[in-house]
Amino acid sequence: MADPTGFLKVKRKEAGNRPVHERICDFSEIEQVLNSDDRMLQASRCMDCGTPFCHWACPLDNLIPEWNDLLWKGEWKKAYYRLNATNNFPEFTGRICPAPCEHACVLNINKEPVTIRENEVAIAERAFNDGYIVPRPPRKRTGKKVAVIGSGPTGMAASDLLNKFGHNVTLFEKNQKAGGLLRYGIPDFKLSKTTIDRRLRIMIQEGLEIRTGTEIGKDIPGKVLIDSYDAICLAIGATKPRDLKIEGRDLRGIYFALDFLSQQNKVNDGEVIHPAARINAEDCRVIVLGGGDTGSDCVGTAIRQKAVSVTQIEILPQPPLKRTPDNPWPFFAKTLKTSTSHEEGCERLWSLSTVRFIGENGHVTGIEAEEVAWEKIGDKYVMKPIPDTRKIIPTDMVILALGFVHPVIEGIVNELGLELDERNNIKTNSNYQTNIQKVFAAGDAVTGASLVVNAIASGRKAAIEIDKYLKSNF
To answer: Cis peptide before 52, with omega less than 30 degrees from 0?
Structure first.
């Protein structure tokens, strides 16, 4: 185990972020890094608890106490191999995972959890820098062909394992570059796209075929794919945005969050966007509807685009600063989260419902909103408008960051006649198999929108089930 008294001798020390005045002028990654000695000391704080709640809280089942122990001892290479045993892409999760492991860390009882997420990314980056992350193609091929549709974290994880199992895997992506929402949904200031490209190069060198700019169900019919491959894994995500169908919704200047975020990432990558199609918050009073992480990403992006002001509105009440009795440790703390984007300059409004959009000459100029109260009736909370609280908030741009409802079912899902659950997600059995025998599905397309760590875990599990299917049916 790590130092038995490390947590008593060493205080939690985070790497910190670049200064606000500097980082809002570019889209480079915000988070800084600790030197190796300090990072190893942070690992020494892990207590190797008899019941490792951090491991319990991690969807990937990362063996956190084990690689923290190795890191503290300076055995960086062994630490990476232990980490990689359960996580294909620690360089991603170490940057953008909300770290449920830290919420469950025993030291979080005193609000001083181990810096698990930062330790993770430090181990991964050391592995790349020291050159022991190298292509390792499978020693032999099975001759079985697998198509993975969607190159986000689920598709990348599934295709990576399936390729390592020796199958011939083709990863299809409708966009011009692979990475899915990692590339087009996560802002560059949280995840540099060079990090994705670095990993994809290794996967290609290991024998993975990646076909971008190819939309299954449009460029290639789904039935053709079924006839051409021994198994198919749908990892198409849940990208159907939740809309707000109220008066004035057809006004110009109202955009979905993913359209806003993905376009900026494309611009950062050098893609030329026609001026008429450009979504630019410069000199605008921006309102972001939705108080989650996607809304926060929109806040940071609008600030970097030189918005005059940014206001984030959430229909739910403001979360408490501390855990409430019904939200005890080691569960994920449902407390107020202030992101790096919020720190950069953003007004946050709570318990506010948008009633209608107001506009002039076809363009949005404001929103009419009213305060709401949430009353618990039985085991459910019911929203009730508060009379005489309506007000107009001026704006030049509105971004809808209201989450995602289900996968896009137009196309491959409808073409193949895949069964859906009550929420219009793809229905699968316990083996990740759909109603079509050789078609499997995983990730957000099955569960609804979730965390990147859940997506990777789902992709890994689906790959194992597909491998079993191929071995038992051929």
So the answer is: no
| Phi, psi dihedral angles at 403 (to 5 degrees) | 90, -175
374, pLDDT greater than 90: yes
Q: What is the pLDDT of residue 2?
A: 61
Contact 80, 123 (CB under 8 A): yes
CATH homologous superfamily for the domain 6-130: Alpha-helical ferredoxin (1.10.1060.10)
- Enter the pTM of the model: 0.96
Return the CATH superfamily for domain 145-239+405-473.
FAD/NAD(P)-binding domain (3.50.50.60)
Rounded-to-integer distance, Cα 365 and Cα 361, Å: 10
Homologous superfamily (CATH) of 243-402 is: FAD/NAD(P)-binding domain (3.50.50.60)
Per residue, the 3-state secondary structure of 372-391, as one string, reads EEEEEECCEEEEEECCCCCE
pLDDT recorded at residue 369: 98
H-assigned helices in 211-350? 222-228, 257-268, 293-304, 340-343
Q: What is the pLDDT at residue 474? A: 65
Residue (of 101, 47, 38) closest to 69 by Cα position: 47
Residues in contact with 466: Cβ distance below 8 Å, sequence separation at least 6, in sequence order? 146, 158, 162, 231, 233, 432, 440
Tokens of 338: 């202030």
Structure tokens belonging to residue 439: 């078609």
Q: For the chain, which residues make up each domain, given as ranges?
A: 6-130, 145-239+405-473, 243-402
Q: What's the rounded Cα separation, in Å, for the pair 462 and 442?
A: 6
Query: How do the residues of the chain divide into helix, strand and coil, expressed in percent and rounded to 5?
Result: 35, 20, 45
Closest CA to 123 of 160, 161, 85, 68: 68
437, 440, 445, 447 alpha-carbon torsion, rounded to 10°: 90
Q: Do 6-130 and 145-239+405-473 have matching folds?
A: no
CA quadruple 330, 334, 339, 344: dihedral sign: negative
Q: How many CB atoms lie within 10 A of CB 133?
A: 18
Give pLDDT tens digits for 82-127. Answer: 999 999 999 999 999 999 999 999 999 989 999 999 999 999 999 9
Q: Which two tokens stand for residue 84?
A: 């990689």
Average predicted confidence (pLDDT) for the chain: 96
Closest residue by Cα to residue 404 from 255, 244, 241: 241
